[in-house]
Specification:
two-stranded antiparallel ribbon; Herpes Virus-1; elongated; 28% helix; metal-binding; Znf_FYVE
Amino acid sequence: NTSRAWSETVSSFFSGVTAAVGRPWRWAAARAEAQVLDDAVEGLSSIHDVPPDVSQVEPYHHASELRVPGKVIHIYRRDGCNHCSYVPRDWSGLQEVQLQPGMLHDHFGRSYYMAVKQVAALATTDPKHRGRTPSWKPQSASASCSCCGSDFLWNSVLKSEAHRLLSRHNCYSCGNAVCDGCSKNRVSMLMSPETARCCDRCWLRPSHPIT
């Protein structure tokens, strides 16, 4: 029942977003829909966030149903660089699929929640701000947090210069240098599967531009 209600909520929301994107006069309506969605999915981000036990799941051996036309290219990362290799279609590793916990991460409740939040942000953001990357303020030019005005080490027991550098962060929404205590929130980034650090000031301002 929860899954069905979630699917219906998402489908209804995406229909509204599709009509709102590119139509400035519907920002208010889209923003209201986004708030309704935000309220509806409150708490869903934790659903299924505990990786299930897949150790007892049998590998999928029907290789003939898994083969795709054309060449198979394996992209991987080694020594900090991306590499790609051609994989023969008759390689034994392609003859079965072993389920791994990492394969399920994209289907957790939080993944769906953040994806919908990203679309909602796109629909309710002024088009001139869409895709805008803020200019980062140099951390060396910031003597204190731009949010609370306190020293960057206010919540740290260590006061060395090295820890001062580690305690300074840049907000991905406005680009200002902020302390760790004022940048605990995360925001969705367009064209990126990862969320980014956001200061409290931008987090509490619903009209903040997204990157």
